[in-house]
Amino acid sequence: MLVGVLAALGAGALWGLIFIVPLLLGDYPAVVLAFGRYIAFGLLAVGLAWFDRRALARLTRADWVEATKLAVVGNLLYYSTLAAAIQSSGAPVPTMIIGTLPVVIAISANLLESRQSASVDAVRWRRLLLPLAIILAGLVAVQFGPAGAIAGLRGDAGWNYLFGLLLACAAVACWTWYPIRNSRWLRARPAGLSRAWATAQGLATLPVALLTAFGFALWQTAFQPGEGGYTWPFGPRPFVFVTLMLVTGLAASWLGTLLWNTASQRLPAALAGQLIVFETLAALLYAFIWYARWPSLHELVGIGLLITGVVLGVKVFRRSRTP
User: Fold this and answer.
1) Quick one: 318 exposed, middle or buried, by C-beta within 10 A (0-12, 13-18, 19+)?
2) How far is CA 64 from CA 2, 58, 69, 154, 254, in A?
3) How far apart are alpha carbons 214 and 38 in whole angstroms?
4) HSE value, Cβ hemisphere, 13 Å, CA-based, for 266
5) What's the pLDDT tens digit per position in 204-236?
6) DSSP letter string over 106-152?
């Protein structure tokens, strides 16, 4: 369990990077950030596939279909909607909505586990209620303070805001489905497949990302000809764009997925869902660094509540697995 929790912590620290990229590249369309990141991820996976060639050779056709589904929903669709939400309505509101993922995933996972009477991972709701309530209270404290979501709500509540709200909800739906599905696949197979499965998802993502880029190019040619469209292939700031795509492709995508797979294989799905709170904490840390300020009192209280809720969640599941 300790290895799984540490792996989830590392994944959250790497995934937190993706929240600031749409702000650093605000002049790039969200779909470009998505397929740029995952083309880089796929190319890196091609090089890394040599080290996992034996494990990859054992994957069946059904496994590759599953990897493609996970790649499309958990990678391309999730990041497209998240980046577009941040660019449409600003960072606070999407971060608030994405911050509910630990609660949403834990509830969804426990509902699924509860339907299986023989499941050892299902936890009684009364035992799960306290850590989930504390996590939710921490998220509310962080997001609804003076520097959080309410500050964003004072702006123009027009179509861009509403569109960003819907996109953030779509991102939550994508990343509620992904970790539960991914965890079930991994835990149904022998240990030691975490790295190979991360590479397989990268290989599955590459052709889909290339097709998405090709489709976007055709769409832009048809509806945005001439000036005003995206400048192919690397946009208005090629060096910054390529550097950030490589960083997010390697660190946030491949290495983050590897660490998350390690956590998923060692932890119950509902507990793993709670540990996505580390992504929110990392995103807050990077935001404080980006804005060059210390967290306020209400933010420190919220972070403390988040950590407390995760610790209690670990204890709940440890007790449930003790004979």
Assistant:
1) exposed
2) 30, 11, 9, 46, 17
3) 14
4) 18
5) 999 999 999 999 888 887 776 655 677 888 888
6) HHHHHHHHHT-TT-SS---HHHHHHHHHHHHHHHHHHHTSTTSHHHH
Do 78 and 174 meet the contact criterion of CB atoms below 8 Å apart?
A: yes
For residue 233, whether the previous peptide bond is cis, meaning omega lies within 30 degrees of 0, is yes
Q: Whole-angstrom distance between the N-terminal and C-terminal Cα of the chain?
A: 15
Cα–Cα distances in Å, from 221 out to 49, 227, 232?
35, 11, 11
DSSP state letter for 295: -
Helix axes 30-48 and 238-247, enclosed angle (nearest 10): 50
Number of domains observed in the structure of the chain: 1
Provide the CA 247 distance to its chain's centre, in angstroms: 15
Identity of the amino acid at 244: L
What range defines the domain where residue 73 resides? 2-321
Q: What is the pLDDT of residues 264-285, one digit of tens each?
A: 778 876 677 677 778 878 887 8
pTM of the model: 0.78
